[in-house]
Amino acid sequence: xxxxxxxxxxxxxxxxxxxxxxxxxxxxxxxxxxxxxxxxxxxxxxxxxxxxxxxxxxxxxxxxxxxxxxxxxxxxxxxxxxxxxxxxxxxxxxxxxxxxxxxxxxxxxxxxxxxxxxxxxxxxxxxxxxxxxxxxxxxxxxxxxxxxxxxxxxxxxxxxxxxxxxxxxxxxxxxxxxxxxxxxxxxxxxxxxxxxxxxxxxxxxxxxxxxxxxxxxxxxxxxxxxxxxxxxxxxxxxxxxxxxxxxxxxxxxxxxxxxxxxxxxxxxxxxxxxxxxxxxxxxxxxxxxxxxxxxxxxxxxxxxxxxxxxxxxxxxxxxxxxxxxxxxxxxxxxxxxxxxxxxxxxxxxxxxxxxxxxxxxxxxxxxxxxxxxxxxxxxxxxxxxxxxxxxxxxxxxxxxxxxxxxxxxxxxxxxxxxxxxxxxxxxxxxxxxxxxxxxxxxxxxxxxxxxxxxxxxxxxxxxxxxxxxxxxxxxxxxxxxxxxxxxxxxxxxxxxxxxx
Length: 500
Hints:
Layout: H1 6-17, H2 26-37, H3 40-66, H4 70-73, H5 77-95, H6 98-117, H7 125-157, H8 166-172, H9 175-195, H10 201-211, H11 214-223, H12 230-235, H13 244-281, H14 291-303, H15 305-318, H16 321-341, H17 343-346, H18 352-380, H19 387-414, H20 420-445, H21 453-467
């Protein structure tokens, strides 16, 4: 199924002994990776800032908000849009263009983020809530496009980086950007609330939402100057019929494992917020505290993610993404079991400092493991011609896992009955157990990923297609579509022979 044997050895040797495609200057390569991957900052920002916005809407509109249906789905509707965007743009990034797909998703994200911030009503708050929800769905579509087009483009662009650093740069401009987006999604409402002295609630939530349009606007300008990744130029199936039957035979099992691990990770992540609420409840009264206090501590909680993703990025180059993910979730499971077992002691107001530290370690290990590496694995375990769709499906299943988790975990909490301790422990017994399962799935079901995995996968897949009668000469962009992403003589992409 995975092309084992003499044929694989031949492909691997060819990929590793051939010169690195288009060895560019470090700065130009870095800009390409950043332009493709950094848009995921918007995912973190927009999905986190909505929590603060909902808090403000509840204060501003009181009983009207409580009786509206929007309180049930305004925060989650972007998940639905994201799944749609991941699937649609996964196809577009393979059959149309990596960079054009990115530009389109950025435009969608920019327009509907601005519309969300500008939502208004004429004496009908319910109408405003409904239109905001509609805009949030389209915001989700824009975010979804960043995954298959952006992350895949970033992975392909890292092929131009120095070996031994490629996974690090990918992580810094994908998952690390998401985590910083979460931090700023909490920090910006804090700053705006402080500037408004906890008054002018409409100004606070509109400004907080509107600032979310600034980053994609800057990124949109940069993306107009970035060319298609060279791997896409040479191995694209844009003008070729995609042999989906062969693709499923070759990558089906691997896609299943990647998708399942991503589902489990996002499914479990919901329970992590339980301890966040416990920490905050021991620090201040959340019902009466000023907005600056609530948003300030929310920023502190989100900062817990940063050490894990940034310090863990080089680990993925040193150990490889497969072992980094498995090691991270295993350690996270150990900490999670400890936190669940010692909940009675840790959840006391006098222990809030120790609780926060252990909780921070728990979150950091989650970023070092699956947070950093699941997207990396999805982006590098498939051939270029179908990489966007492969990644989009895996990412969409992950988001579905997050959505399912939001509905399932309340039942797990409820299983604890009247015991506050059991209600807090059960989700983490489940989550930590799933961490162990993820480690097993990764170690048993996925291959090791090296610095040249993308080149190796393309070589293996081409040989597999040829062995099954597929004409690989039709792969690649046609003459006139290929563009030299570096100056002539510095590794410009070579069109496929049939394009001439």
